[in-house]
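Example record

The entry below shows one chain as it appears in the dataset: sequence first, then structure tokens.
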Amino acid sequence: MEIGIDCIEINRFCEIKANERLLRRIFTKEEVEYCRGKSYPPQHLAARFAAKEAIIKALSNFSARVPLNGIAISKDTRGVPCAKFLDAGLNRRYKIKISMSHSDSVAVACALVTKVGSNRRRKNKNDV
């Protein structure tokens, strides 16, 4: 199990929201549509970016690599943020839990990534 966290200033996404090429390199089509449906899209773009960065940071401890647009951030049926990889193989190997938040100026996200099948406890040298 590994953790990643990221924090980003929302104003960095004020100009990005109109740059289609850059948006495609970072977000899925569904993420862009969701964010554009909000009253202030940069807040939601920044939160999703922070979540993707947090996931990538956690994955780096497993020596796994994935591009930003290879991760999809959405909400489940209860409205809880969730993430999945667009590569089905990665979804079989790793489980992700995320939390996102933002203020008027900053977005933050935390990710917990667990390798499937690695829930065996490591022995500590002090274990008997």
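Notes for this example: The chain has a mean pLDDT of 90. Helices lie at 20-26, 29-36, 41-60, 88-93.
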